[in-house]
Design goal:
Blueprint: E1 6-11, H1 23-26, H2 31-44, E2 48-53, H3 57-68, E3 73-77, H4 86-93, E4 98-103, E5 125-128, H5 134-147
Parallel strand pairs: 1-2, 1-3, 3-4, 4-5
Helix pairs in contact: 2-5, 3-4
The structure holds 1,3,4-trihydroxy-5-OXO-cyclohexanecarboxylic acid.
The site of 1,3,4-trihydroxy-5-OXO-cyclohexanecarboxylic acid has 10 residues, from loops.
Length: 152
Amino acid sequence: MRGNGLIVALSGPNLDQLGQREPAIYGTGTIADHIGAATAAAAVHGYVLEHFQTNHEGALVEAVHAARARADAIIINAGALSHTSWSLRDALAGFGGVVVELHLSNPAAREPFRHTSTIAPVADGCIAGFGGLGYPLAIEAVVRLLTGTSGQ
Ligand code: DQA
């Protein structure tokens, strides 16, 4: 049900490896650390955060479908699927709520294949390059968009 204060965080391939995966790029925090920080930030504003991580594109698409009837917003770090997945783009286009794209690193400052995002055109905005801080920042962005306090 829309308007119930639910935010869904979705994590794509390889994000279950955070903490051990290329720490010089992605930091030493685990996905549990980041989701914990985001959950706490959401609770301050009276929102509940649910998280789902998968290494499978279809499962991520189905998680977007499942969120459609339930959630006010999706925060999505789709990992490399951000650069390749048209099916994820189409699923997010049909979501209808607030969508924030999130990356720990700054893909624009990395290899050319990371410079394209299939989901950017269907997101309200993107937070990238701030490491784990991006998770509470994404909550802040979602809450402000949902409450109409995102500025002029
Ligand atoms: C990432 C950036 C992507 O390019 C990469 O494939 C990831 C992680 C990030 O959080 O910085 O898996 O989404």
